[in-house]
Structure formats: C-alpha cells, structure tokens
Amino acid sequence: MDEPFSNLDQRLREQVREETMELLREEGISAVVVTHDPEEAMHIADRIALMRKGRIVQTGTAEELYFRPQTLFAARFFCDFNEIEAVATNGVVTTPIGVFAAPAGIEGACTVCVRPQALLLDPAEGGAPAEITARRFLGRVDRLRLRVEGLAQDLHARLRDARAFRPGQQVRLAVDARDVLIFAADTHGRPC
Q1: Mapping DSSP to helix (H, G, I), strand (E, B) and coil, where does residue 175 land?
Q2: Which pLDDT tens digits describe the chain residue by residue (192 residues)?
Q3: Cα 104 vs. chain centroid, distance in angstroms?
Q4: Rounded to the nearest 5°, which phi and psi values hold at 16?
Q5: DSSP code of 2?
Q6: What is the DSSP track for 65-127?
Q7: Which residues pair with 121 in a beta bridge?
C-alpha cells in the first residue's frame, strides 16, 4: 500500500488506519505500507525498513530504529534533533549545554544530537544559562526556542505545560542524556 492514509484528515486517518491494521492482523495478511510519516510507521509497523535513495539503510522495530539508529539519516527521520557540532576528546564531548560521554572509539569531530524533549528548564541544580526567544503552544506540548551562548543557532525544546515561560526570560537548561545521540563526523553519519 503506497501512502494509503495520507489524504485523510487526522481523526479519520487514525480511525481508518486502526481498522485496516486490525483487519490485516485478524486475517493474517502481511502487507508492505509505504509512508513518509515516521509516527505512522512506528504506529502500524511490526518491522520498519528505512530507505534512502532506493536502498535499505536500516531495518528493525520502531524502538530499535528510534533508540539505536545506525546513521544520522536514520536518526533524523525519526526526530527533529537539535544538532551541535563538537569534538570528542579522551572519551568526553563538551558542548555549551553539557558534557556527554563519547561512545567507545570516537575521537575528534562529531555531531551531538539532542531530542527536543531532552531539554529541561530550571533544573534543580546548575544547568547552562539560556534565554527563551519564542514560545509556541501546540496543544499537547509547547515548543520553545532557546538561545544559548556559544551556539550558532537556537535550540528547540518541547515541554508539557510551559505557560509560565515567556520570550525574553532567562532560564537554566539541563539535558536528559538518555535522549542524546552522538555521531562521528568522519563516518558519514554512522553512529559512534
């Protein structure tokens, strides 16, 4: 099925998708579904085959591809990361927002990928100083744009109920390291 649910509004898409997947499972029918929507792929697939330029770059369950992407391309498909260029030295990557353990065997230039939900504001202890430059209410979450000294571009955070935060406000920023991936620059997007 090639993009079978793409022309439906969100509510109808979810309903038709659920009914279709339920019917396929009840009847024991295997199906290949093509989608460019990462959330839809994770929602309906038992296994995902991620393709780039006509070639499969990684296969696995939704959790495998999300938590352990093998390339920067795969990581980007499933998340709109904050990407920070950095250098790994002696097993450590230092950035303006924190210090992270470098994966085994990496030294030199790398890309630190931080998921928007990994950014925590006003942590109890320390944290990097940041300024909120924008806040957008998106329903389930708020998207905040943050300026951090030492970074060329603003970071994006996704927080539940961020109504107390306003543009221009100074905050402290911490990072949940569980939502950080590091890729070596010299491996053309393969993870370190």
Answers
A1: strand
A2: 888 888 889 889 889 989 988 999 899 999 998 999 898 999 889 999 999 999 999 999 999 999 999 889 999 999 899 999 999 999 999 999 999 999 887 889 999 999 999 999 976 667 899 999 999 999 889 999 999 999 999 999 999 988 889 999 999 999 999 999 999 985 544 444
A3: 22
A4: -65, -40
A5: B
A6: HHHS-SSHHHHHHH---EEEEEEEETTEEEETTEEEEPPTT--EEEEEEE-GGGEEES-SS--
A7: 173
pTM, to two decimals: 0.84
Match 């996704």 to its residue by tokens. 158
Position 89: which residue type? Answer: T
* Cα 84 to Cα 53: distance, rounded to the nearest angstrom: 26
Domain architecture of the chain: domains with CATH = 80-192 (2.40.50.140)
CB atoms within 10 A of CB 156: 18
Structural Rg of the chain based on CA atoms: 19
Tokens coding 141: 């979450």
Candidates 91, 156, 155, 81; CA nearest to 111 is: 81
H or E element: which one contains 93?
A: strand 92-95
102 DSSP 8-state letter: P
Using an 8 Å Cβ cutoff, are 135 and 154 in contact? no
Q: Which runs of E-coded beta strand occur in 102-154?
A: 108-114, 119-121, 128-137, 142-147
For residue 24 the two structure tokens come to 């396929």
